[in-house]
């Protein structure tokens, strides 16, 4: 397996797929599908190099409560999408749908209702993350910005933990610092990344133990989506006040570069 494939599948397992919980709980029409559910869902890829012969992220759902087990294989999943290789898994989640990339659907016949509900969430997630135009309604804007923030913070951390050269060099010499993403007047839309001496941990919501060392702050949801969806220029947004760097500008440029790195592995 080449290094780019390793980085890509680690981002999908640790940063993208965990968004299933966010979408399944934040979207009312989807949340009601799992209100009385008791099921273990899994997305996996066969991998001879892995200890259990495959890699996976799975979800345990009990009465609408979701437990995410990122990059962990479950041996008794009730509903599973199993890809024949890590390469097929990565290609599929980058949007390449063909007979070579389609997964095996395990448990679909026995647990039809749960399978359909889980696929509804995956399709919603795919639609959100692949959108090229910002949504018009406030509720979807909140969900999309939140999803992007979580993806980026967890994605940077995943790359660090798996030895990405530039990101590892950045965290290795860093003292204990917290970098965060935020939108004015929307405390529910925030995420952070804590790094120290080569270690990293991504978190959802506001970091409340201390003031973050640096915050990439947007004046509105629309401004955030402009940068996150690459329809706005970071320098122009900063000059116009749509993007506020709470901290030295050089740290904003550095964080922005790592955001693009994550996006590159996730979208190709």
Helices and strands, with pairings:
Elements: H1 3-16, H2 19-26, H3 28-31, E1 38-46, E2 54-62, E3 65-69, E4 79-83, H4 86-93, E5 104-106, H5 112-129, H6 138-161, H7 165-172, E6 177-183, E7 190-196, E8 199-204, E9 214-218, H8 221-228, H9 234-240, E10 243-246, H10 249-267
Parallel strand pairs: 1-4, 6-9
Antiparallel strand pairs: 1-2, 2-3, 4-5, 6-7, 7-8, 9-10
Notes on the structure:
It is a single chain. The protein has 268 residues and is α+β, with helices and mostly antiparallel strands. Helix content is 44%, strand content 22%. The chain is built from ten helices and ten strands. It has helices spanning 3-16, 19-26, 28-31, 86-93, 112-129, 138-161, 165-172, 221-228, 234-240, 249-267; strands at 38-46, 54-62, 65-69, 79-83, 104-106, 177-183, 190-196, 199-204, 214-218, 243-246. A five-stranded mixed sheet has the order 3-2-1-4-5. Strands 8-7-6-9-10 form a five-stranded mixed sheet. A hairpin with a 2-residue loop joins strand 7 (190-196) and strand 8. 38% of the residues are buried.
């Amino acid at each position: 397996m080449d290094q780019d494939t390793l980085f890509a599948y680690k981002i999908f397992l640790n940063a993208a797929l965990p968004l299933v919980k966010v979408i399944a709980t934040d979207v009312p029409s989807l949340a009601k599908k799992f209100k009385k559910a008791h099921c273990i869902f899994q997305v996996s890829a066969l991998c001879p190099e892995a200890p259990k012969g495959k890699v996976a992220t799975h979800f345990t759902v009990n009465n609408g409560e979701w437990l995410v087990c990122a990059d962990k294989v479950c041996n008794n999943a009730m509903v599973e999408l199993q890809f024949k290789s890590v390469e097929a898994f990565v290609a599929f989640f980058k949007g390449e749908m063909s007979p070579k990339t389609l997964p095996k659907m395990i448990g679909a016949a026995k647990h039809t209702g749960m399978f359909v509900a889980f696929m509804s969430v995956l399709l919603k997630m795919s639609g959100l993350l692949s959108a090229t135009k910002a949504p018009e309604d406030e509720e979807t804007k909140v969900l999309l910005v939140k999803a992007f923030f979580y993806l980026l913070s967890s994605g940077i951390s995943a790359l660090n933990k798996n030895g990405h050269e530039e990101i590892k060099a950045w965290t290795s010499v860093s003292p204990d610092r917290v970098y965060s993403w935020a939108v004015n007047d929307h405390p529910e839309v925030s995420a952070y990344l804590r790094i120290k001496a080569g270690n990293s941990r991504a978190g959802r919501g506001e970091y409340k133990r201390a003031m973050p060392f640096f915050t990439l702050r947007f004046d509105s949801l629309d401004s955030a989506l402009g940068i996150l969806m690459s329809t706005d220029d970071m320098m122009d947004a900063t000059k116009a006040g749509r993007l506020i760097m709470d901290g030295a500008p050089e740290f904003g440029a550095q964080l922005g570069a790592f955001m693009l790195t994550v996006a590159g592995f996730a979208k190709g």
